[in-house]
Amino acid sequence: MSTERLVAAAPAGRRASRRVLPGFGLTLGYTLFYLGIIVLIPLSALIFKSFALSGEQFWRAISAPRVLASYRLTFGASFLAALVNLVFGLLIAWVLVRYRFPGKKIVDALVDLPFALPTAVAGISLTALLAGNGWVGQILEPMGIVLAFRPAGIVIALIFIGLPFVVRTVQPVLEDAEKELEEAATCLGATRWQTFTRVILPTITPALLTGFALAFARAVGEYGSVIFIAGNMPMVSEITPLIIIGKLEQYDYAGATAVALVMLVISFALLLLINALQAWQRRHAGAPA
Amino acid sequence: MTSLRPKTLLAALALSASGMALADSTLLNVSYDVAREFYKDYNAAFIAHYKKAKGQDIRIDQSHAGSSAQARAVNDGLAADVVTMNTSTDVQFLADNGVVAKDWARRFPHDAAPTTSTMLFLVRHGNPKGIEDWDDLIKPGVQVIVVNPKTGGNGRYAYLAAWGAVLDKGGSAAQAAEFVGKLYRNVPVLAKGGRDATATFLQRNQGDVLITFESEVLAIDREFGAGKVDVVYPSVSVVAENPVAVVERTVARKGTAELAKAYLDYLYSDEAQEIAARHAIRPRSEAVLKKYARTFKPIRLFTVAQYFGSLTEAQKVHFNDGGQFDKLYLPGKP
Description:
The complex is a heterodimer. By secondary structure, chain A is mostly helical. In chain A, 80% of the residues lie in helices and 0% in strands. Chain A contains 14 helices and no strands. The longest helix of chain A is centred in the N-terminal third of the chain and has 34 residues, at 65-98. The radius of gyration of chain A is 23 Å and the shape is globular. The two termini of chain A are 20 Å apart. Chain B is an alpha/beta fold. Chain B has 2 domains: 22-116 and 241-291, 3-Layer(aba) Sandwich (D-Maltodextrin-Binding Protein, domain 2); 119-238 and 303-328, Periplasmic binding protein-like II (D-Maltodextrin-Binding Protein, domain 2, 3-Layer(aba) Sandwich). In chain B, the strands form 2 sheets. In chain B, strands 4, 5, 6, 7, 8, 9, 11 and 12 form an 8-stranded mixed beta sheet that branches. Chain B has a 4-stranded mixed beta sheet with strand order 2-1-3-10.
């Protein structure tokens, strides 16, 4: 992947890359058409539904104290969970790529389990584990650490479902990273830490950021696994998707779509920000010293 | 190619016509979650009854999920022939959108609710906290598990039962508001739906008392073994009606109006009422109610209409955003 990027960064490469795949117009047209049908039309339906509200109603729906508290919780917990996954996902990817040990294939497959598991199952099993009478909960609660039915429980559920995103985006990049560069760094007298921060980290940072963004985006939209462990107390542990469901239960379609729209806009802005960060990082890392 | 067209068209027409003929004897009953077992038994009984009466074989499909979610699905186009819900607001929503008849509540006896249920307390075996009535729920140190009235019909009835219990004793609206506010301050976890609340109370061992439908008690005994929880009958509770309606939009298209009506009518028969009673759903028939007196202990009941006008009215005043519940319930504040 790093070599590809070097080619792309070269001025001649950009023009050449057009010729690699024929039919640029056709493929781009297809891409836009497909994305339009699959992504844009459903999302614009969301926007049109919220048009049923007047400006003032819209504002009231999206800025009620309960709703504001839920944004804070949803985005805060998602950010925290994605951050944890960033660190530990990298660690897991590193171990999977750089070491050989018995049962490696099984560990590798385990990483994907949160992908495949119905999220409700994840939520129910995590709650069973962490509640006061669960295996983990009964040890922790006497020590004063209460996880289930608290915001902490939400973060744990979001860490669980977000883990594969970081591991699976970082893993292939680490595999492609050239060992010779590290060896060269060691030959030139770099310490292990210097090799990691100056040689390895710049290579994998774009992938790390992508993994972070994916884990974060997934966590923001997560419903099934959170609902069982959250306790769902308004102002305290109520996530925004639950607010949306609550509005639908009272047949307030417009209010629900208004809140959904806010989530969409914030998520999109954050993803754009992360993308920009990635591009910036790539420029800096890509520029040879 | 073009010469083939009329033939294909004809074939397609014949196919769709035969499909319609088939569809005539098929009903889709869209219902709420916990009625699954009841309607499984009821459908078998109705199919046998219909075969005997009309000599026609029919098939009945079931669809179950949260009551409001089901109502939204039907509104958005799910081709239900009949809806059988646990809250009249869900049927009213369909009536407001012209999917079921405007006067649906007068199409069948007892406000089109062939069965009812009520809200009771479940406490841990032996009733360690000595919970006997509504007033015990607001004592300090008592933890109440209840469904969020914003996300579940179960929770709305629990709220209305608590509110009405105060009015029933001659209390004022202000006293009722104070009582309900105190009650929800004793709630450590707001469950999303009925089954969620049951799991929280029994599997996670949260709370001292669970407010839930009478019909849930049987399911809990079956699932977790009898004797794990005790049932407490408060001095007074609310009648929770299970309304039914024919989905006019679908039956007009499929030609199943007669069958759909027969299906709902038969819910009022003694046989159907007994099946309901066996599932701990309160029958309307006095005779059956008496026969199952062990399941349905006599309890003073008030209807939603008595104190709240209607469920639709209650929804507006109490549960919609900015309503009473939002005002009373200030969580995070002790």
